[in-house]
Design brief:
Elements (H helix, E strand, L loop, with lengths): L1 E5 L5 H10 L6 E5 L1 H9 L5 E5 L10 E11 L6 E5 L10 E5 L4 H13 L5 E5 L10 E5 L13 E4 H9 L3 E9 L7 H20 L1 H11 L7 H7 E4 L2 H16 L16
Parallel strand pairs: 1-2, 6-7, 6-8
Antiparallel strand pairs: 3-10, 4-10, 4-11, 5-8, 5-9
Helix pairs in contact: 1-5, 3-4, 5-6
């Protein structure tokens, strides 16, 4: 069974047990940016993977979402930011770089700027670690958002915080998707992966210091308080977060930024 791994600090707590404690036989882990995992899942090349929540819209007819896990924040997230040379209110018609690394945050930013600031920038594609020499602002996510900028940035906006303040909802940035057609074939492996994820998250409570130390060793270039970061993130997919995801899909669908999403289909086979 081939599964994806978002190669960011935020996904590491799910995989800690598998990486550091007990590798699982028959499980091949493919690390990549969220956008790459989205494409692999969409092409059926992974059996299961964390994906950008927005990516579910294009594969909802053939994938199921695991109901227990997500990557979310209630307010500040620190790793999904808009860096800007200008105040956000002054970005109408200006150039805004969109990170190629993810999809949820791109849609999130477009919704915020259109619906809550009434502005329409000129969007341009940028690398996951953009600068501001040739553009006015840029979306930066994941590990790259937690690396100090080479040059001073006048304005930094946390999109998790903006979304909560503007809508009252938290943001579900990523979910775990499963190929529906292979759920029965890989049932034993799937059970072992889900069990491993649950054991991993328990380490955040039972042996937090060791997990954080291992995360720092895996991503040594991140100069950030990981204890604080992991407290900001929400890993368990609560009912409130499921409702937040439904709201996000509704807003994105109405804005024409995502295909309309019907009732979210969750995996109930275990």
């Amino acid at each position: 069974m081939k599964i994806g791994y978002i190669n960011y600090l935020n996904c590491y707590p799910f995989f800690y047990h598998l990486f550091e404690k007990e590798p699982l036989p028959g499980i091949e882990v493919h690390p990549a940016y969220p956008s790459e995992l989205n494409a692999l899942m969409n092409r059926g090349e992974l059996e299961m993977s964390p994906i950008s929540a927005a990516a579910y819209a294009d594969m909802q007819d053939r994938t199921l979402i695991l109901p227990d896990f997500c990557l979310s924040s209630i307010g500040y997230v620190k790793s999904v930011i808009l860096i800007s040379r200008l105040p956000i209110e002054d970005l109408d018609g200006r150039s805004v770089g969109l990170s190629s690394a993810s999809q949820t945050s791109v849609v999130l930013l477009k919704l915020l700027l259109k619906n809550h600031y009434g502005i329409t920038p000129r969007y341009v594609p940028v690398s996951p670690a953009p600068g501001l020499r040739e553009i006015d602002a840029a979306l930066v996510i994941g590990n790259e958002a937690m690396i100090p900028q080479r040059e001073p940035v006048p304005y930094v906006y946390d999109l998790g915080d903006l979304w909560l303040r503007k809508t009252g909802f938290p943001v579900v940035f990523a979910v775990f998707a499963l190929q529906e057609s292979r759920a029965s074939e890989f049932a034993p492996q799937l059970r072992s992966v889900i069990s491993s994820f649950k054991r991993s998250l328990r380490y955040l409570e039972e042996d937090r210091e060791t997990l954080i130390r291992k995360a720092e060793e895996k991503y040594p270039y991140i100069l950030f308080d990981l204890d604080e970061y992991y407290r900001l993130l929400k890993f368990e997919f609560s009912d409130d977060l499921k409702r937040a995801l439904e709201y996000y899909f509704q807003q994105a669908g109405e804005a024409g930024l995502l295909a309309p999403v019907g009732e979210i289909r969750y995996f109930t086979g275990l």
